[in-house]
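Sequence only, no structure available. Ideas?
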Amino acid sequence: MLEYFQLIGGLILLLIAGDALVSGAASLAIKFKISPLVIGLTVIAFGTSAPELFVSLEAAFNGTPGIAIGNVVGSNIANILLVLGLPAIFYSMNADNEDVRKNMKVVMLASLVFAALVLTGVLAWWHGAILFAGIVLFLYFEAKKSRDTRKNGEYDYSEIEGELDATPKRGWKIGLFLLFGIAGLPFGAHYLVAGASTIALDFGLSEAAIGLTVVALGTSLPELAAVFSAVRRKESDLAIGNILGSNLFNMLAVMGLTALVHPVAIPDSIINVDIWIMLAVTILLYLVISRIKNISTMVGGTFVAFYVFYIFTALG
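Reply:
I predicted one. Tokens follow.
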């Protein structure tokens, strides 16, 4: 029974700490007049991916590589099929935007590189270096582009104001939010991984299956909340951009950093099945964005149906 309290308690702590970290970091970024585009691509994308990062690091050091890699692959699948699909059932998302299409191409390329490295069977430190270099390059070029977003000498934060409604405004509050987020994330990750590992053994499930489903779904909840918030305000570009940024961070930053500090052995099930499913759903999203240019109610419903089928298959 203890493992279920660890799993649920760890997940709740991860979500609360992740939200505190992104709120504090966003306020700090605004205080120092950092571009909203950079905030969206770094603070918000990293903040919603922070649970994946700490879970993967904890799992790798804990000797459960299946949870580490399964968490990232499963989160990317969940982000596309469930996190984009579920809100689209209620709010259709317009994807006819040149920046969205460009970022989709970057995610497509990163997915192919990530999959190629995963298929080697072990993510070594130099694989991690390649992946992490990718996110550094991406952020560098995005930061260069962001110089053109100034409006009358100041940045316009209207595009992300909904994400920042609950952010602290005073310096001491910003510090408390950051401290709680940084301290809470590793503790939440520890308990979540410990509980998930025990449950996997109790039910005879593989660590990879738990990582791909329960852990991945749990760590994708911040993205789901962010996307629902964006689509309610009819900010489709921000909603889709959050998912593209999150998936990019998961592959390049989360697995990049994890492999840099600890080798990650890839389970056969991920090499033979799940990495191909991740590639397939990424290609599917690419086709929807480039050809249909709209994530409609029908598309959203289809995505969610695919995800439900995937979960039953993964746990079966």
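The domain at 2-315 is CATH 1.20.1420.30 (A middle domain of Talin 1).
Hope that gets you unstuck.
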